[in-house]
Design a protein that fits this description.
Elements: H1 9-38, E1 43-44, E2 50-53, E3 56-59, H2 60-63, E4 69-74, H3 86-93, H4 99-102, E5 106-112, H5 116-126, E6 132-134, H6 140-143, E7 147-148, E8 156-157, E9 160-161, E10 167-168, E11 171-178, E12 181-189, H7 198-203
Parallel strand pairs: 4-5, 5-6
Antiparallel strand pairs: 1-12, 2-3, 4-11, 7-10, 8-9, 11-12
Length: 235
């Protein structure tokens, strides 16, 4: 295995101080990126979406639960499946206590296309407490490009026309409520949701990293992207 070079403490400190400057530059660049995200325009939601939850049907405004902002994680769960996507499950395992988001007038929910009964059963198995709603039978997944079917809607994923792919995908969308009006402000897909998984962020701090073939330096990996993921009760 290609391991890091062994050096003296003084040499290590010199290298670490130089790398700290790169980390600080990245932090400043990330702050500017976040500011630019907040500067994006928004789109008024005109359609009346219907979601199915533990207390019956409700609309998109009700998912805010009285708060001004709503984050929707598009959890990949096809109606024919009996268990949710492993990658989405890994993301959901890392969702903490929602009180911290609620303190910033923000709610977070999961939305999937599978019928609510399947979501409820899988949620109980996984021991999650985050609110989870079904969009089964509606347009929500298609309109936000996480269910891809050219016969229903032109296929676009991650802001690219992609007629060659189909099926369900994951992603994240953000909404803002202003009085009675709801606006779509942001959506991200693919590696745009990478920061949601703290396991990956912790592993990025280690010399072996995520141990996936795409990472550098080469020679420290043992699997392709996501091949090692399991549901947390299957490791």
């Amino acid at each position: 295995m290609n391991l890091p070079e062994v050096v003296s403490r003084e040499e290590w400190l010199d290298a670490r101080r130089k790398f700290l400057e790169e980390e600080k530059a990245f932090t400043r660049a990330r702050d500017e990126l976040n500011a630019n995200r907040r500067r994006l325009p928004m789109v008024r939601i005109e359609k009346d979406y219907v979601f199915h939850g533990p207390d019956g049907d409700l609309g998109l405004p009700e998912l805010f639960d009285g708060r001004r902002q709503l984050i929707v994680y598009h959890f990949m769960f096809h109606p024919d499946w009996d268990a949710g996507c492993r990658g989405c499950s890994k993301v959901t395992d890392h969702i903490g206590h929602l009180a911290h988001l609620h303190a910033r007038d923000t709610n977070l929910v999961l939305v999937s296309r599978a019928p609510f009964a399947k979501l409820a059963a899988f949620k109980e198995r996984m021991g999650w407490t985050v609110p989870w709603f079904s969009s089964h039978g509606g347009d929500f997944n298609y309109d936000f490009h996480v269910t891809l079917d050219e016969s229903v809607k032109p296929v676009e994923y991650n802001y690219r026309r992609s007629p060659e792919i189909s099926g369900d995908r994951s992603g994240l969308s953000v909404f803002l409520r202003d009085g009675e009006d709801v606006f779509h402000t942001y959506s991200t897909y693919a590696r745009g949701t990478d920061l949601l998984t703290s396991t990956s962020n912790y592993l990025d701090l280690t010399p072996l990293g995520r141990q996936e073939h795409w990472e550098l330096p080469a020679g420290r990996s043992n699997s392709g992207p996501g091949e090692w993921w399991r549901l947390h009760d299957e490791y």
